[in-house]
Amino acid sequence: MTLVVVPVRYPLTSNSAATLREAARIAADRDASLTVLHVDLYQDSHNVTRVDLKRAVERELGAIDRARYVVRKGFLVEESILEEVAAEDADVVVIGSRQASRWRRTLRKVFSDPDIDEFLREKLDCEVVTVDDS
User: Fold this and answer.
1) Whether the model pTM is above 0.70
2) 51-89 tens-digit pLDDT
3) What is the DSSP string of 56-82?
C-alpha cells in the first residue's frame, strides 16, 4: 500500500493546514495511507501527544481514513522528518515550500548546494510534493 507522509507544526499554522489538505487529497486520490508527523523539539518541547495532533487535524479536516498520527522527539526537525520517512519507507512526502527551503539550508551545511527533491528521491526513493503554502 502507498504511504504519504506530511510533516506539520502543532498547533497547526495556516501553512501546515494548507500542506495537510494537499497531503490528504493526494492520499485519497492514490488510495494511500497518510502519516501526519509533528516533530516536538527536545530544546523547545511542548509535550505534544498523538491525541493532541489528531484532534487538531480533525478540527481542520474532519476524520481522515487510514491516517496515522506520529509525534517524534528530536533536536533537528529536518533530520527527524528524514528519519521518519526512511523508517516508514514512505512513497510520497508532502512538504510546504517553507519547509523545503529550511531543508535546503540544512542540507547545504552537509552537502554542496543539493536539490532537496533530487536528494530525497535518490536517498529515500520517494516522491516529493512541494505545496505553495505562502
Assistant:
1) yes
2) 999 999 999 999 999 999 999 999 988 888 888 998 999
3) HHHHHH---TTEEEEEEEES-HHHHHH
